[in-house]
Structure of Inactive serine protease 35:
Amino acid sequence: MVCMLRDKWLSKDARTFLTCRTDGLPGTKSTCFSATKRSRYTDKMRFTLLFLLLSVPPSSFIKGAETEQDFIWHFKKLPLIVGQRTFRLESPKFQAEIKLELNGTCGIECQKTLPRPSRSDLEDCLSYETIFENGTRLRTDVNIQGSLPQVKSENATSVTGRLRRKRQVYGTDSRFSISDKHFMTNYPFSTAVKISSGCSGVLISPKHVLTAAHCVHDGKDYIKEARKLKVGLLKIRSKGGGKNRRGSKQRKKGSSDAQDPRTPVAKSLNKRSVEGNKNRKGSRKNRGESQGNPSFQWTRVKKTHIPNGWLKGVTAKDVALDYDYAVLELKRPQKKKYMDLGISPTTQHMPGNRVHFSGFDSDRPGQLVYRFCGVRDESSDLFYQHCDAEPGSSGSGIYIRLREPQSKKWKRKIVAVYSGHQWVDLNGGQQDYNVAVRITPLKYAQICSWIHGNAADCTHA
């Protein structure tokens, strides 16, 4: 027998019930379970913990001088990203290999030594390439209309450098595998998608997916898998196996003859039915296991947008990492609920200083993995954090929950794209972090114009 103590605890992000082991300490109320029930109880408690984690409002954890007024999605006027000139480029070779880890990129310390980009520099970086499924490649030069957003050069924390050691899981692995089909196929987890190149992404409109640029392009050429790129969304298999199964029209057409047991049609159908039942007896168990289970429904990518900031500087120590994002347009719209974009606030305006994201980590095949953690450091374009992650989760949409200004309801929005594990220069050495690219006002305006096809629809966020 194993005794379990029910203990109430409070974290920065949520109030949950945590099941803890005890040897029967005095003054504790314990519930005992046999070993055979332990696994089921553990699974149930993990999902209960996760449900409570997502349902408790962030306002429960406001501390000190912070007020709920600090945690609001502010209505902002955006500069316009307007296409000036579009011209055709040579078709890509599709010979690059996907890079799961980028070395030598310019991090926060490196960025402090760089001059502030001019309007011309920003226009060059925000110009973009569009590649279509047939290999046609276009370049669009853009013009920024309106005032440039104010850049706040404040860092959340300063961290001491330590010995270089590769790791993407920090300390105890705190990731949650979402195995319950009702969780993984419902919002917000249902917005996470799998990219056929081996990355993750997030649905930001019925037809658009946000992911990392390095998931389709290595800075010099498109990766091999980008030639026939697909996006997979988790859906529960229906018991019917489809709307119209093969042969249904023929059976419907001859249904009047089949109702009369004396006709040759009815005799033939009855014979096949008996034989089919015999053949299917041994497969009922297997059919039951596959029915109702989540599986990927794959959709072809119609076209891909990548900012020139990624294409021009991924091999040099400049701002390339700031532009590690791409938008994929699907061939057909999805009926799933998507997650809206939001402009990334500073960490002081995030409840608990925490971010959340879900993806398809390669070390847990077939599982959707959720995690949350605090941001360790920030620049105007990057988040540094120690959220546990593995290759495969790159491109995931990082979100937070803030209040809507009118309704005061809490709403999730995507504020960054998970780029992956990076080595960055820090305090004279190299420090490893899991890095995310923040959605700034300029990036929001660009992504919005990619979604709507018109910059005039993207004047406010």
In short: The chain has a mean pLDDT of 75. The two ends are 56 Å apart (CA to CA). The first strand starts at residue 2 and ends at 10. The CA atoms of residues 12 and 61 lie 6 Å apart.
